[in-house]
Amino acid sequence: MQKLLFIILTALSVSSCTTDSIDRTLEFSAKQTLSLYRSVKDLDGRLPRSIDPSGQLVTSNDAYWCSGFTAGTLWYLYEYTACDSLKAAAEALTERIERQQYNTGSHDVGFMIYCSSGNAYRLTSNPAYRDVILNAARSLSTRFNPALGVIRSWDHLQWHFPVIIDNLMNLELLCEATRLSGDTSFLHIAVSHADTTMKYHFRPDGSSYHVVDYGVLQDGFPLRQTHQGCADASAWARGQAWALYGYTMMFRETKKPEYLAQAIKIANFILNHPRLPADGIPYWDFDAPDIPNALRDASAGAIICSALIELSAFADKNLAGKYLKAAEKQIATLSSPEYLAETNTNGNFILKHGVGNLPNRSEIDVPLTYADYYFVEALIRYKKQNKS
Ligand code: GLY
Description:
Elements: H1 2-15, H2 21-41, E1 47-51, E2 57-60, H3 69-81, H4 84-97, H5 109-124, H6 127-141, E3 144-145, E4 150-151, E5 162-164, H7 171-181, H8 185-200, E6 211-218, E7 221-225, H9 237-254, H10 257-271, H11 298-312, H12 317-334, E8 354-357, E9 362-366, H13 369-386
Antiparallel strand pairs: 1-2, 3-4, 5-6, 6-7, 8-9
Helix pairs in contact: 1-2, 2-3, 2-4, 2-13, 3-4, 3-5, 3-13, 4-5, 5-6, 5-7, 6-7, 7-8, 9-10, 9-11, 11-12, 11-13
The chain binds glycine.
Glycine binds next to loops.
Protein backbone atom coordinates (compact mmCIF):
# COMPACT_ATOMS: atom_id res chain seq x y z
CA MET A 1 0.00 0.00 0.00
CA GLN A 2 2.93 2.33 0.80
CA LYS A 3 4.36 1.69 -2.67
CA LEU A 4 0.99 2.45 -4.24
CA LEU A 5 0.70 5.71 -2.31
CA PHE A 6 4.20 6.69 -3.42
CA ILE A 7 3.27 6.06 -7.08
CA ILE A 8 0.03 8.06 -6.72
CA LEU A 9 1.79 10.95 -5.01
CA THR A 10 4.57 11.00 -7.57
CA ALA A 11 2.02 10.98 -10.38
CA LEU A 12 0.08 13.77 -8.74
CA SER A 13 3.10 15.98 -8.35
CA VAL A 14 4.19 15.34 -11.95
CA SER A 15 0.71 15.90 -13.33
CA SER A 16 0.35 19.24 -11.53
CA CYS A 17 3.94 20.19 -12.50
CA THR A 18 4.67 21.13 -8.87
CA THR A 19 8.15 20.26 -7.79
CA ASP A 20 8.75 23.03 -5.30
CA SER A 21 9.73 22.43 -1.73
CA ILE A 22 6.25 22.85 -0.28
CA ASP A 23 4.96 20.03 -2.43
CA ARG A 24 7.87 17.84 -1.46
CA THR A 25 7.22 18.54 2.22
CA LEU A 26 3.51 17.79 1.83
CA GLU A 27 4.25 14.58 -0.04
CA PHE A 28 6.65 13.50 2.69
CA SER A 29 4.04 14.46 5.33
CA ALA A 30 1.40 12.32 3.63
CA LYS A 31 3.61 9.23 3.64
CA GLN A 32 4.86 9.82 7.15
CA THR A 33 1.40 10.44 8.65
CA LEU A 34 0.00 7.39 6.92
CA SER A 35 2.76 5.37 8.58
CA LEU A 36 1.82 7.01 11.88
CA TYR A 37 -1.77 5.93 11.33
CA ARG A 38 -0.65 2.36 10.66
CA SER A 39 1.14 2.29 13.99
CA VAL A 40 -2.13 2.88 15.88
CA LYS A 41 -4.51 1.18 13.44
CA ASP A 42 -4.78 -1.98 15.51
CA LEU A 43 -4.50 -0.33 18.92
CA ASP A 44 -8.08 -0.29 20.07
CA GLY A 45 -9.31 3.31 20.45
CA ARG A 46 -5.80 4.79 20.82
CA LEU A 47 -4.58 8.00 19.17
CA PRO A 48 -1.01 9.17 18.46
CA ARG A 49 0.44 11.55 21.02
CA SER A 50 4.28 11.70 20.91
CA ILE A 51 7.33 9.50 21.53
CA ASP A 52 9.08 8.54 24.76
CA PRO A 53 12.82 9.03 25.43
CA SER A 54 13.58 5.67 23.80
CA GLY A 55 11.76 6.73 20.64
CA GLN A 56 8.70 4.52 21.21
CA LEU A 57 5.28 5.81 20.22
CA VAL A 58 3.17 7.27 23.03
CA THR A 59 -0.59 7.17 22.52
CA SER A 60 -3.58 8.73 24.27
CA ASN A 61 -7.23 7.96 24.72
CA ASP A 62 -9.92 9.99 22.95
CA ALA A 63 -10.51 12.30 25.94
CA TYR A 64 -7.00 13.77 25.78
CA TRP A 65 -6.97 17.35 24.44
CA CYS A 66 -4.80 16.37 21.44
CA SER A 67 -6.89 13.39 20.33
CA GLY A 68 -8.19 15.09 17.16
CA PHE A 69 -5.00 16.44 15.65
CA THR A 70 -3.74 13.39 13.74
CA ALA A 71 -7.19 12.84 12.24
CA GLY A 72 -7.14 16.52 11.21
CA THR A 73 -3.67 16.21 9.69
CA LEU A 74 -4.84 13.19 7.70
CA TRP A 75 -7.88 15.14 6.46
CA TYR A 76 -5.65 18.01 5.29
CA LEU A 77 -3.32 15.57 3.56
CA TYR A 78 -6.30 13.86 1.95
CA GLU A 79 -7.40 17.30 0.72
CA TYR A 80 -3.94 17.75 -0.82
CA THR A 81 -3.48 14.29 -2.36
CA ALA A 82 -7.08 13.10 -2.96
CA CYS A 83 -5.64 9.72 -1.96
CA ASP A 84 -8.20 7.14 -0.72
CA SER A 85 -5.82 5.62 1.84
CA LEU A 86 -5.51 8.96 3.58
CA LYS A 87 -9.28 9.41 3.56
CA ALA A 88 -9.83 5.96 5.05
CA ALA A 89 -7.23 6.65 7.75
CA ALA A 90 -8.78 10.05 8.53
CA GLU A 91 -12.24 8.51 8.78
CA ALA A 92 -11.02 5.76 11.10
CA LEU A 93 -9.33 8.14 13.56
CA THR A 94 -12.20 10.63 13.39
CA GLU A 95 -14.56 7.86 14.44
CA ARG A 96 -12.39 7.08 17.47
CA ILE A 97 -12.95 10.60 18.80
CA GLU A 98 -16.61 11.13 17.97
CA ARG A 99 -18.00 10.28 21.40
CA GLN A 100 -16.20 13.37 22.74
CA GLN A 101 -19.11 15.34 21.23
CA TYR A 102 -20.88 14.71 24.54
CA ASN A 103 -17.95 15.71 26.75
CA THR A 104 -19.02 18.66 28.91
CA GLY A 105 -15.98 18.33 31.17
CA SER A 106 -13.41 19.91 28.84
CA HIS A 107 -13.12 23.14 26.86
CA ASP A 108 -10.82 21.18 24.55
CA VAL A 109 -13.82 19.55 22.88
CA GLY A 110 -13.29 22.32 20.30
CA PHE A 111 -9.78 21.10 19.47
CA MET A 112 -10.85 17.45 19.52
CA ILE A 113 -13.95 17.71 17.38
CA TYR A 114 -13.26 20.69 15.12
CA CYS A 115 -9.89 19.35 13.91
CA SER A 116 -11.36 15.89 13.24
CA SER A 117 -15.08 16.08 12.42
CA GLY A 118 -14.85 19.76 11.42
CA ASN A 119 -12.36 18.97 8.65
CA ALA A 120 -14.27 15.81 7.81
CA TYR A 121 -17.47 17.78 7.21
CA ARG A 122 -15.64 20.50 5.28
CA LEU A 123 -14.24 17.91 2.87
CA THR A 124 -17.08 15.37 2.61
CA SER A 125 -20.33 17.23 3.47
CA ASN A 126 -21.43 14.02 5.22
CA PRO A 127 -24.33 15.13 7.50
CA ALA A 128 -23.25 12.69 10.23
CA TYR A 129 -20.20 14.90 10.87
CA ARG A 130 -22.44 17.97 11.01
CA ASP A 131 -24.42 16.39 13.87
CA VAL A 132 -21.19 15.66 15.76
CA ILE A 133 -20.09 19.31 15.38
CA LEU A 134 -23.45 20.59 16.66
CA ASN A 135 -23.50 18.26 19.65
CA ALA A 136 -19.94 19.25 20.52
CA ALA A 137 -20.88 22.93 20.34
CA ARG A 138 -23.79 22.25 22.71
CA SER A 139 -21.40 20.50 25.10
CA LEU A 140 -18.89 23.36 24.97
CA SER A 141 -21.66 25.92 25.52
CA THR A 142 -22.52 24.34 28.88
CA ARG A 143 -19.17 25.65 30.14
CA PHE A 144 -20.10 29.27 29.40
CA ASN A 145 -20.79 31.50 32.40
CA PRO A 146 -23.03 34.38 31.22
CA ALA A 147 -22.25 36.54 34.26
CA LEU A 148 -18.50 36.33 33.63
CA GLY A 149 -18.83 36.25 29.84
CA VAL A 150 -16.32 33.40 29.36
CA ILE A 151 -16.11 29.64 28.86
CA ARG A 152 -14.44 27.80 31.74
CA SER A 153 -11.22 26.01 30.78
CA TRP A 154 -10.23 23.54 33.47
CA ASP A 155 -12.17 21.79 36.22
CA HIS A 156 -9.01 20.47 37.88
CA LEU A 157 -5.92 22.19 39.35
CA GLN A 158 -5.93 24.99 41.91
CA TRP A 159 -7.97 27.72 40.21
CA HIS A 160 -11.61 28.70 40.84
CA PHE A 161 -12.78 29.73 37.36
CA PRO A 162 -9.72 29.43 35.13
CA VAL A 163 -9.63 30.53 31.52
CA ILE A 164 -6.48 29.87 29.54
CA ILE A 165 -5.48 31.79 26.43
CA ASP A 166 -5.59 28.49 24.48
CA ASN A 167 -9.38 28.49 24.90
CA LEU A 168 -9.72 31.04 22.07
CA MET A 169 -9.03 28.16 19.68
CA ASN A 170 -12.20 26.36 20.74
CA LEU A 171 -14.35 29.26 19.52
CA GLU A 172 -14.01 28.14 15.89
CA LEU A 173 -16.27 25.18 16.66
CA LEU A 174 -18.95 27.55 17.97
CA CYS A 175 -18.75 29.82 14.91
CA GLU A 176 -19.12 26.80 12.66
CA ALA A 177 -22.09 25.54 14.69
CA THR A 178 -23.95 28.82 14.13
CA ARG A 179 -23.20 28.63 10.41
CA LEU A 180 -24.50 25.06 10.23
CA SER A 181 -27.58 25.48 12.42
CA GLY A 182 -28.56 29.14 12.21
CA ASP A 183 -28.59 29.17 16.03
CA THR A 184 -26.80 32.41 16.88
CA SER A 185 -26.37 31.54 20.56
CA PHE A 186 -23.12 29.70 19.73
CA LEU A 187 -21.66 32.75 17.98
CA HIS A 188 -22.75 35.03 20.83
CA ILE A 189 -20.84 32.88 23.29
CA ALA A 190 -17.77 32.93 21.05
CA VAL A 191 -17.89 36.74 20.72
CA SER A 192 -18.43 37.22 24.45
CA HIS A 193 -15.47 34.98 25.25
CA ALA A 194 -13.21 36.73 22.73
CA ASP A 195 -14.25 40.20 23.96
CA THR A 196 -13.75 39.33 27.64
CA THR A 197 -10.41 37.65 26.93
CA MET A 198 -9.27 40.78 25.10
CA LYS A 199 -10.05 42.80 28.21
CA TYR A 200 -8.31 40.68 30.84
CA HIS A 201 -5.73 38.43 29.23
CA PHE A 202 -3.39 40.95 27.61
CA ARG A 203 -0.59 43.27 28.68
CA PRO A 204 -0.10 46.69 27.08
CA ASP A 205 2.64 45.29 24.78
CA GLY A 206 0.23 42.78 23.19
CA SER A 207 1.59 39.70 24.98
CA SER A 208 -0.78 37.53 26.97
CA TYR A 209 -0.95 35.82 30.31
CA HIS A 210 -1.57 32.11 30.22
CA VAL A 211 -4.18 31.62 32.96
CA VAL A 212 -6.78 34.13 34.17
CA ASP A 213 -8.78 33.07 37.21
CA TYR A 214 -12.12 34.89 37.12
CA GLY A 215 -12.93 33.44 40.53
CA VAL A 216 -10.26 35.50 42.35
CA LEU A 217 -9.78 39.27 42.27
CA GLN A 218 -6.37 40.86 42.81
CA ASP A 219 -6.02 44.68 42.64
CA GLY A 220 -9.38 44.89 40.87
CA PHE A 221 -8.40 42.35 38.17
CA PRO A 222 -8.96 38.62 37.94
CA LEU A 223 -5.84 36.75 39.11
CA ARG A 224 -3.34 36.30 36.25
CA GLN A 225 -0.83 33.47 36.36
CA THR A 226 0.85 30.81 34.27
CA HIS A 227 0.72 27.05 34.10
CA GLN A 228 3.02 26.21 31.19
CA GLY A 229 5.15 29.35 30.96
CA CYS A 230 8.34 30.10 32.90
CA ALA A 231 6.69 32.84 35.05
CA ASP A 232 3.33 34.53 35.58
CA ALA A 233 4.63 37.65 33.85
CA SER A 234 6.35 35.82 30.97
CA ALA A 235 5.24 35.38 27.37
CA TRP A 236 4.84 31.62 26.96
CA ALA A 237 5.41 31.10 23.23
CA ARG A 238 2.52 28.77 22.47
CA GLY A 239 0.17 31.04 24.39
CA GLN A 240 1.14 33.93 22.10
CA ALA A 241 0.58 31.59 19.14
CA TRP A 242 -2.92 30.59 20.29
CA ALA A 243 -3.77 34.26 20.83
CA LEU A 244 -2.59 35.28 17.36
CA TYR A 245 -4.42 32.42 15.69
CA GLY A 246 -7.54 32.97 17.83
CA TYR A 247 -8.09 36.65 17.00
CA THR A 248 -7.22 36.14 13.32
CA MET A 249 -9.83 33.37 13.18
CA MET A 250 -12.40 35.47 15.09
CA PHE A 251 -11.89 38.34 12.65
CA ARG A 252 -12.48 35.93 9.75
CA GLU A 253 -15.67 34.74 11.43
CA THR A 254 -17.12 38.09 12.56
CA LYS A 255 -15.31 40.86 10.65
CA LYS A 256 -15.16 42.80 13.96
CA PRO A 257 -12.30 45.33 13.46
CA GLU A 258 -11.25 45.01 17.13
CA TYR A 259 -10.23 41.42 16.49
CA LEU A 260 -8.10 42.36 13.49
CA ALA A 261 -6.43 45.12 15.53
CA GLN A 262 -5.76 42.65 18.35
CA ALA A 263 -4.29 40.07 15.97
CA ILE A 264 -2.00 42.72 14.46
CA LYS A 265 -0.89 43.82 17.92
CA ILE A 266 -0.02 40.24 18.84
CA ALA A 267 1.77 39.65 15.52
CA ASN A 268 3.82 42.78 16.10
CA PHE A 269 4.74 41.64 19.60
CA ILE A 270 5.97 38.31 18.23
CA LEU A 271 7.70 39.49 15.07
CA ASN A 272 9.39 42.55 16.62
CA HIS A 273 10.49 40.68 19.72
CA PRO A 274 14.25 41.00 20.25
CA ARG A 275 14.42 37.38 21.39
CA LEU A 276 12.62 35.88 18.38
CA PRO A 277 15.39 33.92 16.63
CA ALA A 278 16.23 34.92 13.06
CA ASP A 279 14.88 31.63 11.70
CA GLY A 280 11.38 32.46 13.04
CA ILE A 281 10.93 29.56 15.48
CA PRO A 282 10.48 30.90 19.03
CA TYR A 283 12.07 29.67 22.20
CA TRP A 284 9.44 27.83 24.27
CA ASP A 285 8.98 31.03 26.29
CA PHE A 286 10.06 34.47 25.10
CA ASP A 287 11.35 35.08 28.63
CA ALA A 288 13.04 31.73 29.25
CA PRO A 289 16.00 32.46 31.55
CA ASP A 290 18.48 30.38 29.55
CA ILE A 291 18.01 32.10 26.17
CA PRO A 292 19.92 31.67 23.81
CA ASN A 293 20.36 28.10 25.07
CA ALA A 294 16.65 27.57 25.74
CA LEU A 295 14.72 24.98 23.73
CA ARG A 296 12.72 26.07 20.72
CA ASP A 297 9.08 25.06 20.33
CA ALA A 298 8.23 23.89 16.80
CA SER A 299 4.53 23.79 17.70
CA ALA A 300 4.45 27.52 18.52
CA GLY A 301 6.34 28.18 15.27
CA ALA A 302 3.84 26.17 13.22
CA ILE A 303 0.76 27.78 14.83
CA ILE A 304 2.18 31.28 14.36
CA CYS A 305 3.06 30.45 10.76
CA SER A 306 -0.45 29.26 9.90
CA ALA A 307 -2.00 32.29 11.62
CA LEU A 308 0.31 34.77 9.86
CA ILE A 309 -0.62 33.35 6.47
CA GLU A 310 -4.31 33.88 7.21
CA LEU A 311 -3.69 37.30 8.77
CA SER A 312 -1.79 38.41 5.66
CA ALA A 313 -5.06 38.15 3.73
CA PHE A 314 -6.74 40.64 6.09
CA ALA A 315 -3.98 43.16 6.84
CA ASP A 316 -2.95 46.12 4.69
CA LYS A 317 -0.38 45.57 1.95
CA ASN A 318 2.70 46.51 3.98
CA LEU A 319 1.83 44.35 6.95
CA ALA A 320 0.64 41.51 4.71
CA GLY A 321 4.04 41.44 3.02
CA LYS A 322 5.80 41.36 6.38
CA TYR A 323 3.58 38.53 7.67
CA LEU A 324 3.99 36.42 4.55
CA LYS A 325 7.75 36.89 4.58
CA ALA A 326 7.88 35.78 8.22
CA ALA A 327 5.69 32.77 7.45
CA GLU A 328 7.87 31.82 4.49
CA LYS A 329 10.92 31.91 6.73
CA GLN A 330 9.16 29.68 9.27
CA ILE A 331 8.13 27.23 6.56
CA ALA A 332 11.73 27.08 5.32
CA THR A 333 13.05 26.49 8.84
CA LEU A 334 10.48 23.85 9.72
CA SER A 335 11.09 22.12 6.36
CA SER A 336 14.85 21.94 7.00
CA PRO A 337 16.55 18.82 8.43
CA GLU A 338 16.79 20.59 11.79
CA TYR A 339 13.01 20.27 12.29
CA LEU A 340 11.64 17.96 9.59
CA ALA A 341 11.99 14.28 10.44
CA GLU A 342 13.46 11.73 8.09
CA THR A 343 11.15 9.07 6.70
CA ASN A 344 10.10 6.50 9.31
CA THR A 345 11.99 8.17 12.14
CA ASN A 346 10.63 10.44 14.90
CA GLY A 347 7.84 7.92 15.60
CA ASN A 348 6.50 8.81 12.14
CA PHE A 349 5.58 12.32 13.26
CA ILE A 350 6.46 15.11 10.82
CA LEU A 351 8.22 17.67 13.02
CA LYS A 352 10.82 17.35 15.75
CA HIS A 353 11.52 19.71 18.66
CA GLY A 354 8.18 20.53 20.26
CA VAL A 355 7.83 21.56 23.90
CA GLY A 356 4.62 20.47 25.61
CA ASN A 357 4.83 21.50 29.25
CA LEU A 358 8.36 22.30 30.38
CA PRO A 359 7.62 23.42 33.97
CA ASN A 360 5.80 20.12 34.46
CA ARG A 361 8.72 18.22 32.84
CA SER A 362 6.34 16.76 30.30
CA GLU A 363 6.94 16.36 26.53
CA ILE A 364 10.19 18.28 26.23
CA ASP A 365 11.91 18.40 22.83
CA VAL A 366 9.62 15.82 21.24
CA PRO A 367 7.23 15.56 18.30
CA LEU A 368 3.74 16.85 19.04
CA THR A 369 0.55 16.14 17.06
CA TYR A 370 -0.47 19.79 17.06
CA ALA A 371 2.89 20.91 15.63
CA ASP A 372 2.24 18.57 12.70
CA TYR A 373 -1.39 19.68 12.29
CA TYR A 374 -0.70 23.42 12.14
CA PHE A 375 2.40 22.92 9.98
CA VAL A 376 0.44 20.99 7.36
CA GLU A 377 -2.39 23.54 7.61
CA ALA A 378 0.16 26.33 7.06
CA LEU A 379 1.60 24.63 3.97
CA ILE A 380 -1.86 24.13 2.47
CA ARG A 381 -2.97 27.66 3.34
CA TYR A 382 0.19 29.04 1.78
CA LYS A 383 -0.37 27.08 -1.42
CA LYS A 384 -4.02 28.14 -1.66
CA GLN A 385 -3.26 31.77 -0.95
CA ASN A 386 -0.30 31.98 -3.29
CA LYS A 387 -1.54 29.51 -5.90
CA SER A 388 1.94 28.05 -6.05
N1 GLY B 1 -3.69 23.63 25.24
C1 GLY B 1 -2.55 23.16 25.87
C2 GLY B 1 -1.26 23.53 25.26
O1 GLY B 1 -1.14 24.37 24.38
O2 GLY B 1 -0.29 22.94 25.71
